[in-house]
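To the wet lab folks,

You asked to see what we're planning to order before we commit. Fair enough. Below is the target structure as tokens, and below that is the sequence we designed to fit it. If anything looks off to you, flag it before the synthesis order goes out.
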């Protein structure tokens, strides 16, 4: 069985995190800290229209404002917001 179709999920070249919170202990903040402080070498962007930065990483207001097209979008927003985020992600 080939993993070719899973490459973007398992080894993305770019990641967008949507819905992260600056709140200490939140899942989104932990993801920001792990990706920005880890060994990920690809492009990384955080989308949050209410906060200008999270854990030292600048945010943008929408996926469309990212300077790259993410191969992987991680969503930590409330469930009600997920359908709209998925639509925005394409």
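Sequence we intend to order:
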């Amino acid at each position: 069985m080939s993993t070719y179709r899973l490459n973007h999920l398992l080894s993305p070249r770019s990641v967008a995190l949507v819905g992260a919170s600056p709140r200490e202990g939140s899942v989104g903040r932990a993801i920001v800290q792990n990706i920005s402080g880890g060994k990920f070498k690809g492009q990384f962007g955080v989308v949050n229209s209410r906060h200008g930065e999270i854990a030292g990483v600048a945010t943008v207001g929408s996926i469309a404002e990212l300077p790259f097209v993410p191969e992987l979008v991680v969503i930590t927003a409330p469930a009600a917001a997920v359908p709209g985020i998925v639509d925005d992600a394409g």
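Structural context that might help your review: Residues 6 and 12 are 9 Å apart (CA to CA). Residues 14-81 form a domain with the Rossmann fold fold (CATH 3.40.50.720).

Thanks,
Computational group
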